[in-house]
Every structure is written in structure tokens, then in C-alpha cells.
Amino acid sequence: MLKVKEKTSNSEDEGYIVIEAGKSEKHYWADLWRYRELFYFLSWRDILVRYKQTVIGIAWSVIRPLLTMLVFTIIFGRIAKLPSDNAPYPILVFTALLPWQFFSTALSDASSSLISNQNMISKIYFPRMIIPSSTIIVALTDFSISFILLAITMAIYRFVPNWKIVFIPLFLLLAIILSLGMGFLFSALNVKYRDFRYIIPFIVQFGMYISPVGFSSSIVPERWRFLYSINPMVGVIDGFRWAIIGKGVSLYWPGFILSIVLTFLIAIWGFWYFRKTEKTFADSI
After folding, report:
1. Helices and strands in the chain, H and E counts
2. Quick one: how far is CA 105 from the chain centroid?
3. Within a domain: residue 12?
């Protein structure tokens, strides 16, 4: 924050203004609330940029999960004939696409958010954490659209979700925490090391293949399940399937607990590194 002091020389009547950096660390959390309207503005702007003045527009949020579901259903369900946990294979895939597309969208947008808003960062003060945090709203918008598509798919297959679906907000919260933690970390790294803009798309693409999106994690041998759960998205995806499909799906609790622990460790690490490097963003960018 910038403070303005007016000082008057003893020998001259003319005053002068000194602008100095304030102690933003002390009031940082209060500033996050004070600048909440900026969070709303950035979120709404990102939504408009994504869907306004585009050829496909909001239909892209429908086409992308549908095409992904179709490809995975053909490859893993029809050709490989993998088990579907007592649910139609399109529903098995869709229950994983919900958290995965939310995570991938939030991570990709958050990682590049500081670079995209470098003019704001270099000119005015505000808690920089607002910028990557606002990208979550766009990801939640896509998530809501995909959830509607899942409901339509379940209606087509006459599939009734389990009562455990009430736990969906908890697993979504876990995905949000993981997305924010990695978003803070990679957005800060992207400011200092610009080659991270090439690394992040690879991480997202590679992560989709090693996460149980197109298949059930139950096909992973028991002796490898705990190691497989080092990927925090495994626990999130399994949680969504457990909550929506219900019957025939069980959580691998050791791996799920490991995913929760790793999610919070990543979130703490990302927050710590972001706050550590935040003061240098304006100079580095």
C-alpha cells in the first residue's frame, strides 16, 4: 500500500509529498477484504473474455466434455473393455471429467494470470493473490455447465445417483484447495521463470493420463494403490465417483487420506512461496 506524507521545510513555505511503501504485511488480510470488488471485477471480466465475441462461445464448455467423454468411452469402454463400476461407461467418465476439467482450467488460468495482468501489477497496489484466486470463478462456471451435462446423461441412461451425492461440495472444496495451491505456486514461478508457460500445459496433459479420468482406479493393482494416490487428483476423482455412482464404488481410504494430506501441503507450500515472492512481482514482471 502507498502512504502519502506531506512535509514542509523549515526554511521554505513550499511543501513536498513523499510516497513510500506501507507495511502491507500487517494489513494484508484486511486488504483482501477491502479489495473484494476487484476480485468480483476480475472474475466477471474473465468470464466475459472466455465466452464473449467467440465463434463457439459458451458451447465450447459443452463440446469439450462431450467429445472427451465420447473418446474415452470408445477407447476404454468399447475397445479396452475396462470395468465401469456398475455404471454406464459415459457416466463413469463424466464423474471424473467434472473435477478434472475444473482443476485443469483453474490451474492453467491461474498460472498465467499474473503475466496477463502485468500492467496492473506494475502500476497500482492491491493484494496480488486476488488475481490467481479470481480464475477459480471461471473454472466453477465450466464445472456448473458440465454438471448439467452429467445430469442429462444420467437421465438418458435412467441412472439414479446415490444419496452420497450430498458430499459433492466437500470433494469440490478439496479440488479448489488443490487448484489454488498449485495456482499460487506456478503463477509465482511463471513470473520469475518464463519457461514455465511451456511446462504447465505439459503438466496438465500428462496429469490427465496418469489420473483415473478415462478408467476406474480400481483396475490399479492393490499393491500400487497407495503409491498411485501420490497424485492428489486420484483422491478427488475417486471421491466424486463414490459420491455420484455410489453402489459398487468404494474409497481406498489410505490413498484418499494421503491425497488430502498432500493437497493441504501443496496449498501451504503454494501460499508460502507466493507470499514470499509477491513483493518482487512488480520488478520481475
Report:
1. 12, 2
2. 6
3. no
